[in-house]
Amino acid sequence: MIDRVSFTQMKDGTKEDYDFLTEHETAYTKGTADRLLTALVSLDESLSGYQITRLGHSLQSATRAERDRADTDWIVSALLHDIGDIFAPYNHDEYAATILRPFVREQCTWVVEKHGDFQLLYYGHHVGADPHKRDAYRDSPYFDDCAQFCERWDQASFDPAYDTLPIEHFADRVRAVFARTPYDPAIIRPGAREPLIST
Ligand SMILES: [Fe+2]
Ligand SMILES: [Fe+2]
């Protein structure tokens, strides 16, 4: 059994090299959830100026989702929706959506991907941006879902007095989502809509 590949250029690799790499990468992907949880904690140091940290905001969004009895896809999407702030401050929504896309329903990925534009409704007029930028997506089946995501879970979750659940509360749920088979049609379910609020 080899412990590293033989090649210095990919085109020279052998079947044995690529079998070895595939096995190696499969083992590595099992750590995705915990790497994301670690990254989420590092959001605690990002973007000061708000009354709560970015980690606090993420946890509060997920807590509100859980208390609305949203399903796991929604809760994990709410938890990770701003994780792109670390490396992609100008397209943090697309960055988070890319992380989620293989593992959650299309509906949730779409909402995370567009939430930045929908959030402008609340403050665009203060910063010289178009508050109605979201109107470009009026024809999407997920328009109302994204509007509700922003109204109930995102824009509302900057309250230091709110009873926010800790990251440990969500850890197993994150692990379960990222242990799913990537791009499983039974998970992605294109066009399917699950409610954000259940009674
Ligand atoms: Fe955001
Ligand atoms: Fe947010």
Q: Helix amount, in percent?
A: 40-55%
Name of the CATH first level? Mainly Alpha
Query: Oligomeric form of this entry?
Result: single chain
Number of structurally distinct domains: 1
Largest sheet: none
Tell me the name of the CATH homologous superfamily: Hypothetical protein af1432
Q: Which blocks of ≥5 consecutive residues have pLDDT under 50?
A: none
Strand content: under 5%
What integer is the average pLDDT? 96
Name the structural class: mainly alpha
Annotated CATH architecture? Orthogonal Bundle
Beta-strand segment tally: 0
Q: What is the rounded distance between the termini? A: 55 Å
Report the total helices.
9
Helix and strand element order: HHHHHHHHH
Look up the CATH topology.
Hypothetical protein af1432
What is the secondary structure topology, with strand pairs?
Layout: H1 15-29, H2 32-42, H3 54-67, H4 72-80, H5 92-100, H6 106-127, H7 143-154, H8 167-178, H9 185-188
The structure holds fe (ii) ion (2 copies).
Quick description:
By secondary structure, the chain is mostly helical. The protein is 54% helix and 0% strand.
Fold and architecture overview:
The chain contains nine helices and no strands. By secondary structure, the protein is mainly α. The chain has one domain (15-188): Hypothetical protein af1432, CATH 1.10.3210.10. The model has no long low-confidence stretch (mean pLDDT 96). The protein binds fe (ii) ion (2 copies). The site of one fe (ii) ion (FE2) has 6 residues, from helix 5 and helix 6.
